Structures are given as structure tokens and as C-alpha cells.
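FAQ: What does the model actually see?

It sees only this:
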Amino acid sequence: MFYRPEDGHGLPHNPFNAIVTPRPIGWISSRDGQGRDNLAPYSFFNAVAYVPPQVMFASTSAKDDVDGTKDSVANIRETGVFCVNIVEYAARDVMNVTSAGLPHGTDEFERAGIVKAECEQIACARVANAPANMECKVTQIVQLPGEANFVVFGEVIGVHLRDDCVVDGRFDVTQFHPLSRMGYRDYTAVREVFELKRPDD
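And it is asked to produce this:
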């Protein structure tokens, strides 16, 4: 099968999200200029550089009560900071609660019953018991072709690691099983890890 996206795929459901999988989930916390906290998951998320450490997430739709985007991007435009909270399998249900399209200014931490803590380097809340949190300052927000497509890039200036996830000096994902997004409404969790050495190691 071959199709051009501009012509349509002819399938019952769009296969694009199912092709690029699994995708890590950036559970993005932000705070607006009035001090109201927000928490939302984004599966267009990844790390993009080592030195300095940098991450990105993309927002690809808009809400009626926010100017041309979603709460996370709107808040980050105002404050210039955000936090990435890593989602473990055990948090799948509360993460899903925070994906709801709620009125601007709603605190998803409170809505989902998630314990929050203050970040160390930025004025932002974080998920208190997440396996890891990355405090970020924005480096740039890029608008992509298409309506309401924005990529937010941030430099990681503070990192929290949950103590039980550090084993023998390594951050061990098998201690918490990172949740990842597949296509459609499907998710998966990392439960198996193996190592490959590069030819020049």
C-alpha cells in the first residue's frame, strides 16, 4: 500500500501515529502568569541534545478558550519555563485524566488527585512522585506548517530522580516501566531491556 497524506489513506483510521511508535510521553507541567498550574501529556516528545541537555514537545491542536494553541504552550509563552514529568505505567490512569480538554485555568493536578511539588530552579509545579522530572527553560517555540502546530524546545536546568529508580549508579527504567504511546488509543510499557554495543566500542 502507498498513499500521499494530502490525498488521504482510505483506511478506517489514520495510520500515521501507529507508524512512529513507541513514543515517550512528556507529561508537561506549566504555570500561567496568574499562578495557575496545568498538567498535560504530549506524545510528540523527546530528548534532542546532550550538551546542554535539551528536550522538545509538540502541541498540534487548539482550544476555543486559548488563542490558537493549548494551555501548555500558552502558559509557557507567558513564563518561559516548563517541567517534563516522566510517566510510569502505574500512573497511566491519572495521566489519562489530565488529557481531558478542560477550561483554561483548571488545575489538572487537583482534578486527577496528583500530588504536586515545587520545582527547584523554576517557578513551576512538578509531579511529586514521578520517576523523574526535568525542569526546563524555553530556548525557542517554533510554529510548524498547519493549524496550531507548535514545537517547544527547552534546556534542562534541573533534574529530579526518584531514589528507587537509581540502581547501581544507573537510572533503571525497569523499576517503573515507562509508559509509551502507540497508534490510535494504544499504549505500551517498557518491561524488557537489552544492550547492543556499537562496532567502535
